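A student in our group prepared the protein record below, which I am reviewing. I have pasted the whole thing underneath without changing anything:
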Amino acid sequence: MNQLNSLILEGNLVRDAVLLEPSPGFKKCVFTVGVNRFYKNKNNEDVNEVSFFDIEGYGKIAEYCEQKGKKGRGVRVVGRLKQDVWKNTEGKSNSRIYVVAEHIEYKPAKKIPEDQETSETGKNSFSPEQKGLKPASQLQAKLQPQKEKVLVEEEAVF
């Protein structure tokens, strides 16, 4: 009988993905996904349970993850569990369980109008004067439609 080791995770990247090359020609990308689980406890109170999973991708998946894997980005990972076991310098056994990605899809980034782009602090990165805006008394009567900037389009690796 064949045994099954397969899983699907959906969540958000906790930090930017990191591309490593442990040996020449072998690329590995590592990142962590936070997954939320919402439920009601026996007292009918809402509970949010968060779990964090370490993910590793290899080869072309690693290159793709390094390009698209930015903190906060939504992601779906199809993969398998893997366990590493080793002994430390004192002879004590250690182990680590992580997910090996076999397929990754990133959720589409939100579209934002160009004039609403913000810095990491959440405030407008430029003042109205720095953006070249005129006082309300000098504005033209006809408004022009806003251009939208697409941060990243949805993509998938198979």
DSSP finds one helix and nine strands in the chain. The chain has a mean pLDDT of 79. The first strand starts at residue 7 and ends at 13.
